[in-house]
């Protein structure tokens, strides 16, 4: 269930109020009784304890409390996302006299609106899917509905609070639980609900910024998709100036390419991949530097021919050297290949490897300059556009759909071979990305995820942008990953 309202206050002020769990919260959240910090995992993730004030036949129903992980991020457009999901924690066990409720997904989406009559306006969305547990839910269905509406009234509470208060900056103040030992917390705070996947690393201030790091131009002028002016794809003579058009000399021979993750183009397939339609993604148009317009991406530059899904006790680097892999097959066919290795750290390390192939690179094209450029140039241009067509609200909000310059958000290793480029993306190098992984990995089998990779265009000659390739991953199983045989 979701509540939406417009509040006359800045996103920053509303965000700080939403993050607070001191006496200020009583003034706008009528479902709040008490809250405390159990553990601060990193600058974006914390474990919280929360007692609910539901006021529904208290003589017949026990009070409810929560232990949950809270994750937040700030997007390039100035909006904030604050997400909640229940989580067990050794320092936050069952409390006497309380029934432990379970948040399936929930949180706030705080987005800036155009000002009206000189007043700042912000849209606040509050979503909550919660199971209150206990006998009252089964015997008294109205208890669940009443309590949920009581919690969602916080949007109206925020609007009322700011209408009667000046926009003072209130820093979040969260008391620590009495039975929490900081020394124990610091040692145990490195593990997640899924023991096989690491979701937090020692705090690194350089990685506390949001993952969605677009270029300076986009941070200044990025608009909501609904406000972008419609445009058509410009792939005529202007496009040919880039040297990025598809080769016109026959089709690529796809025989012999294989990966351990199967391809399946049916809509309801599971544990598989398929090629995603490039028009599902919007990229910079030819006139982007003048009007910031974006257009459907169209056909990609390279062909996705195989996907590998690996696991091992150690991180898997330079997978292109593996005998029989798609890179080796492409070399035998005289093709150029680009392998993108997304590395997920943890007790068990995982790697999702995408193999894209094309005919010879066109000299002086943006793609060729990216492949043969230095790491500084590559990091400033390698971009990912994510999307979650199918998944829970909390996952869709945590992943988002904002383009991300991966080289500015995580550590990347580039390996240039004679006829290939491998890009090893260490997702574990970012605490923000790890926070997202903590939400995604536990429900990965329920997700359909789209990813598009491209080289960001800056100048008029480099536009319009073209995708390297795009892929859709459907309901991936961790158990289907295999241990690769890599040469030392």
UniProtKB/TrEMBL annotation:
Q: Which GO terms describe its cellular component?
A: nucleus
Q: Which domain of life is it from?
A: Eukaryota
Q: Which residues form the START domain?
A: 1-150
* Cellular localization per UniProt: Nucleus
By what name is this protein known?
START domain-containing protein
Origin species, per record, is Aegilops tauschii subsp. strangulata
InterPro entries per record? EDR2-like, EDR2_C, START-like_dom_sf, START_lipid-bd_dom
**Major subcellular site:** nucleus
Record PROSITE patterns: START
Could you state a single Gene Ontology molecular function term? lipid binding
């Amino acid at each position: 269930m979701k509540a939406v309202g417009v509040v006359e206050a800045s996103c920053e002020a509303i965000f700080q109020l939403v993050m607070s769990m001191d006496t200020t919260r009583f003034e706008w959240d009528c479902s709040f009784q008490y809250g405390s910090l159990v553990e601060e995992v990193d600058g974006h993730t914390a474990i919280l304890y929360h007692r609910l004030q539901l006021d529904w036949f208290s003589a017949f129903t026990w009070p409810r409390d929560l232990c949950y992980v809270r994750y937040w991020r700030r997007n390039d457009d100035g909006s904030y996302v604050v997400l909640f999901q229940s989580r067990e924690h050794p320092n936050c066990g069952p409390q006497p006299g309380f029934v432990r409720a379970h948040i399936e997904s929930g949180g706030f989406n705080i987005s800036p609106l155009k000002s009206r009559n000189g007043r700042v306006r912000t849209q606040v969305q509050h979503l909550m899917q919660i199971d209150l547990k206990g006998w009252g839910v089964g015997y008294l269905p109205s208890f669940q509905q009443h309590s949920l509406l009581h919690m969602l009234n916080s949007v109206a509470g925020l609007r009322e609070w700011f209408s009667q208060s000046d926009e003072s900056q209130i820093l979040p103040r969260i008391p620590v639980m009495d039975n929490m030992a900081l020394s124990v917390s610091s040692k145990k705070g490195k593990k997640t609900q899924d023991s096989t996947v690491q979701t937090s690393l020692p705090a690194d201030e350089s990685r506390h910024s949001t993952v969605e790091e677009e270029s300076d131009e986009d941070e200044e002028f990025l608009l909501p998709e609904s406000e972008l002016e419609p445009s058509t794809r410009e792939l005529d003579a202007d496009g040919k100036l880039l040297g990025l058009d598809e080769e016109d000399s026959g089709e690529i021979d796809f025989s012999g390419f294989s990966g351990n993750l199967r391809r399946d183009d049916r809509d309801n397939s599971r544990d598989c991949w398929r090629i995603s339609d490039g028009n599902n993604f919007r990229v910079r148009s030819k006139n982007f530097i003048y009007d910031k317009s974006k257009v459907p991406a169209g056909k990609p530059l390279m062909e996705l021919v195989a996907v590998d899904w690996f696991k091992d006790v150690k991180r898997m680097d330079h997978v292109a050297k593996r005998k029989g892999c798609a890179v080796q097959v492409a070399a035998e066919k005289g093709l150029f290949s680009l392998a993108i290795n997304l590395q997920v750290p943890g007790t068990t390390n995982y790697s999702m490897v995408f193999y894209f192939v094309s005919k010879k690179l066109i000299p002086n094209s943006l793609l060729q300059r990216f492949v043969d450029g230095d790491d500084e140039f590559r990091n400033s241009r390698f971009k990912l556009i994510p999307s979650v067509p199918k998944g829970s609200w909390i996952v869709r909000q945590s992943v988002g759909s904002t383009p991300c310059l991966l080289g500015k958000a995580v550590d990347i290793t580039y390996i240039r071979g004679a006829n290939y480029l491998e890009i090893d993306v260490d997702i574990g190098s970012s605490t923000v990305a790890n926070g997202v992984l903590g939400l995604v990995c536990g429900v990965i089998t329920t997700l359909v995820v789209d990813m598009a990779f491209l080289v960001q265009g800056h100048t008029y000659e480099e536009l319009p942008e073209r995708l390297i390739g795009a892929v859709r991953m459907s309901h991936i199983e961790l158990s289907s990953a295999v241990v690769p045989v890599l040469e030392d």
